[in-house]
Amino acid sequence: MMSTHDKVTDDTTDFGFERVKTGEKAGRVREVFDSVAARYDVMNDLMSGGMHRLWKRFTIELSAVRPGQTVLDIAGGTGDLAAKFSKLVGADGHVVLADINAAMLSVGRDRLIDKGALGNISVVQADAQYLPFEDNSIDCITIAFGLRNVTDKNKALASMHRVLKPGGRLLVLEFSKPVSPFLSKIYDTYSFSALPAMGKIITDDADSYRYLAESIRKHPDQDTLLNMVEDAGFVDCRYHNMTGGIVAVHRGIKG
Amino acid sequence: MQHDPAVIAGVCLVAEAAIARAIALSPGTARQLEELHPVELAIVCTNPAIDVFLVINSDGEINVSSYRETEPTVCISGSSSAFLKVATASDPAAALINGNIKITGDTAVLMTLQNVLSDLNIDWEAPMVDLLGPIVGHQLANLIRGLTSASRVAHQSARRQLSEFILEEGRLSPPRAELDDFLGSIDDMVLRVDRAESRLKRLKNRVNILTGAST
After folding, report:
1. Which of A1, A152, B104, B152 counts the highest number of beta carbons within 10 A?
2. Are residues B6 and A55, on separate chains, in Cβ contact within 8 Å?
């Protein structure tokens, strides 16, 4: 069943607050990330005040990854999660860093080499909707701040369900809806005023950061995304709000 | 009350970094910890409800996390006030055993870990020399060592003098031996009273029997 929140009609979908042709979204998202790739981590640190590191740390804890397992980090971009997973799975395990964007992957691969995270990591350019992996082959999938940029989220969740092993786990870390109206107001002001201004100063690209803020608002809230994960066939689904619900991590297990 | 996982993750991150720094500056500790791999220690605080897990990895590093799904080797649980009492006690091991803290699992591992951590001998000279060079760094490290030693001596001396004042000068509290003697005589008295009570009971029974026989 397709969630109505995903709003992919026959020919249009959301691109921030805009409606674009379904076939165009991936290209438009690629342009955004091509523009911000080189300074993506610097901007993340500035925008979140370093909080993204804690959100990712808790996501890694929830993964309960063990040595010898295979982990797929979708939209892994600059490779910070992949580097941590590489250490956790050890020499007998395997980590696949996947992203649809070649520029982000290139930055990520360079970072991993610089960190010495080699040997058990593969880098794959892949679309989350059509994952190029065998059925039942992955122990854990993470997608951090990537699902909202996917054209058809339901299709992507179904694809993740297909490649996970039975008992494997999916973790979706994504911006969400603040639980307090007061925090929501402050967050809105910050996102639509401060964020594009910071983007302009750091990457000389206010539009890309305006898109990021808009895409967060168009992304499903906690309960809607939970339903979408359940609809994709996952069981024992739950979510944890972080920083007042600004970010939530959803967990689902393949039954 | 539900705690924000990001806040707990931040606390774990800081604790992990501090422990890693201390281990790095203490020669031999990492090797001792390596031998304890794969020990997992769970610290479960019931009030406020916070779980923290210390996992010793194969490199002798301690990973601190707020979420684990595996069974810990040893679990220590109690309220925050009970943990605070242990942390501030002059003999933490005794306070841990006698306090309101519940320990489950392999307690021998806990004792080994406690011994390793109590042997932690941080060498401040290496980071000082790295930062300031061998001449200034060495002098500064000597100064810190001297101050630390002087402060330890001053602390011990202050405790001893305070104890002497309370016991000898002010007579505010009885000496340990006098107190033990007093408590011992109370115990003796309790036993004597018990014996007397028992004799009285026996006597009363005999009187009842004799009176019953005469009538």
Report:
1. A152
2. yes
Cα–Cα distance measured from residue B1 to residue A139, given in angstroms and rounded to the nearest whole number: 33
Whether residues B21 and B104 share a domain: the answer is yes
Q: Do B6 and A62 touch (CB under 8 A)?
A: no
Q: Chain B partners of A51 at a C-beta cutoff of 8 Å? A: 6
Stretch among A25-29, A190-194, B62-66, B154-158 having the lowest mean pLDDT: A25-29
Lowest mean pLDDT among A109-123, A192-206, B22-36, B134-148: A192-206
**Based on the domain organization, do B37 and B103 belong to the same domain?**
yes
Task: Evaluate whether residue B92 is within a structural domain.
Answer: yes
Interface ipTM: 0.77
Domain count, chain A: 1
DSSP state of A17: T
Query: Mean pLDDT across chain A, nearest whole number?
Result: 86
Among left, alpha and beta (phi > 0; psi -120 to 50; other), residue B120 is beta
Task: Write the CATH number for B20.
Answer: 3.30.1050.10
Chain-chain contact of A53 with B13 (C-beta, under 8 angstroms) = yes
Same domain, B69 and B148: no
Distance to chain B for A131, nearest Cα, Å: 28
**A247: nearest CA partner in chain B:** B6
Residues 6 or more apart from A127 whose CB is under 8 A from it? A26, A100
Q: Check whether A2 has a pLDDT greater than 60.
A: no
Query: What is the H or E stretch that residue A200 is in?
Result: helix A195-203
Compute the residue count for chain A.
Answer: 255
Distance from the Cα of B102 to chain A's closest Cα (Å) equals: 25
Q: Minimal CA–CA distance to A144: which of A86, A236, A58?
A: A58
Domain with B51, as residue range(s), is 5-118
Facing A58 at nearest CB: one of B5, B69, B70: B5
**Residue B13 is nearest to which of A54, A242, A243, comparing CB atoms?**
A54
Q: Does B195 lie in the same domain as B162?
A: no
Q: Based on the structure, what is the number of domains in chain B?
A: 3
**What are B56-79's pLDDT values in tens digits?**
888 888 999 999 988 899 999 988
pLDDT digit string, tens, across residues A51-83: 899 999 999 999 999 999 999 999 987 788 999
Say whether pTM exceeds 0.90. no
Q: Note down the domain range covering A95.
A: 4-180+208-254
- The residue whose two tokens read 């490199």 is B59
Q: Kindly state whether residues B31 and B83 are assigned to the same domain.
A: yes
Residue A176 phi/psi, 5° resolution?
A: -145, -150
